[in-house]
Amino acid sequence: MIDVRDLDVRLGGMAVLDSVSTSIGEGRFVGLVGPNGAGKSTLLRAIGAVLKPDAGTVLLGDEDVHDLPSRAASRRVATVPQDTSLSFDFDVREVVAMGRTPYRSRFRSSADPAGEETVERALSRTETEAFAERSIGAVSGGERQRVVLARALAQETPILLLDEPTASLDINHQIRTLELVRDLADDGKTVIAAIHDLNLAAHYCDELLLLSKGAIVDSGSPEDVLTESNLTRAFDARAVVSRHPVTGAVYVTALPERTGDREGRVHVIGGGGTVSRLLYVLSAAGYEVSVGALGTGDSDLETARLLGLDTVIVEPFAPIDAETRTRVSERIARADVTVLGDIEVGSGNLANLECALASDALVVVEDRPFEERNYAGADARALYEAVIGRGTVVEGSEVFGAVEEAMDRSS
Ligand SMILES: Nc1ncnc2c1ncn2[C@@H]1O[C@H](COP(=O)(O)OP(=O)(O)OP(=O)(O)O)[C@@H](O)[C@H]1O
Predict the structure, then answer these.
(1) Rg of the chain over CA atoms, in angstroms?
(2) CATH 3.40.50.300 occupies which residues in the chain?
(3) Where is the ABC transporter domain (predicted)?
(4) 192: left (phi over 0), alpha (psi -120 to 50) or beta
(5) Whose CA is nearest to atom 28 of ligand 1?
(6) If DSSP codes are grouped into helix, strand and coil, which group holds residue 304?
(7) Distance 40 CA to ligand 1 centre (A)
């Protein structure tokens, strides 16, 4: 159990950690996340006894790590720092063997019988044995990072602190390293790792600790911590949180800032990917965009989610009920311009079309001739005819310009 209590650290006259408290249970893999300069490295250094806090304690069980002699502390906590500058005079195996220092007697060189085997196991687990004889100066940055992890494993401590363990690793080694760290935690090691990639952190960690400006914003399961409001608070960024389609883990997508200076509301009716690009362009231009009704599972819906748009959702193939119809109508009434994408005029879209008829500024995208569309019967065809009679009909490539013109007219 690691118990951090009221930790204050001041560096260069600035408060870098401000009354940080947290408890981390044995065998947990905790991800430290937060923006640059939040204090993640500083917290790891304070927990690892590399840096003495100005106030507060770091208890390992009932002992304060800062009161332990350095050899004793090194048997409890191993640290993999962010900058792994090493003397080039050593080969890789010798660097890993340095992890055994806390177990070596100062008087007898043969006092660490388990050491050799431990070093070989650490080399093997980090897949560094292939270049174990090479000078540490002759390996790549990513390989060096794995060597330093191997050195920390050779230290055989119950606690492992990692500062950006995957920062210079290729995608394959990022995954392999985090899988290894996950296994270490499952075997009982307590791991705290600063990880920039929120999605990797969400996938591998049991808990996340979100730091910003030297204080903990939130802590708990990845689902609880990675919320859109927490991300805005900590990173000052727009982000959408969804589930990864394959792993099911929480998945964060950072959104581009709305760079455009356009003002006004646009409601978009689409479906089946017909308006995904338009949603992106309108949103990036600065317009407030709403969309729907869209069926769950629709690819336009996924885009709308990723862009964080106001979306009316219906069950796929279900008729649009009165409540949904009201929600669509409200958005069309609020919008300065409504856009109808190049959609099929099937039964699922009839209510959307009826709502669109109420729009005063309607832009209709027609990339296919009227005759080539699929209609759910003569009524549907008549309804669609009424809609295009009411709107400005444009090709897909002209739609953005048409929205701007309609916006000017409506203001
Ligand atoms: N020796 C120092 N003197 C003065 N300020 C420092 C010192 N070391 C760090 N800081 C400041 O403390 C703050 C926290 O730094 P820290 O390295 O802990 O952040 P971090 O969350 O790990 O950032 P990053 O994600 O960029 O690695 C930063 O604003 C940094 O500039």
Answers:
(1) 29
(2) 2-235
(3) 2-238
(4) beta
(5) 37
(6) helix
(7) 8
Whole-number Å distance between alpha carbons of 240 and 255: 7
**Which residues are within 8 A (CB) of 332 and not within 5 positions of it... i.e. 6 or more apart?**
267, 338, 355, 356, 358, 359
CATH annotation of 2-235: 3.40.50.300
Instruction: Report the distance separating Cα 180 and Cα 375, nearest Å.
Output: 56
Model ipTM value = 0.96
- The whole-chain average pLDDT of the chain stands at 89
What is the reported pTM?
0.73
Domain with CATH 3.40.50.720 in the chain: 255-410
Closest atom of ligand 1 to 32 CA is: 21
13 lines ligand 1 (CB under 6 A): no
55-60/2-11 β-pairing: antiparallel
CA of 81 from ligand 1 middle (Å) equals 13
pLDDT, tens digit (0-9, with 9 covering 90-100), for 80-124:
998 767 777 889 999 999 998 888 766 555 566 778 899 999 999
Q: Which two tokens stand for residue 218?
A: 């939130």
Whether 40 is in the pocket of ligand 1, judged by its Cβ within 6 Å, is: yes
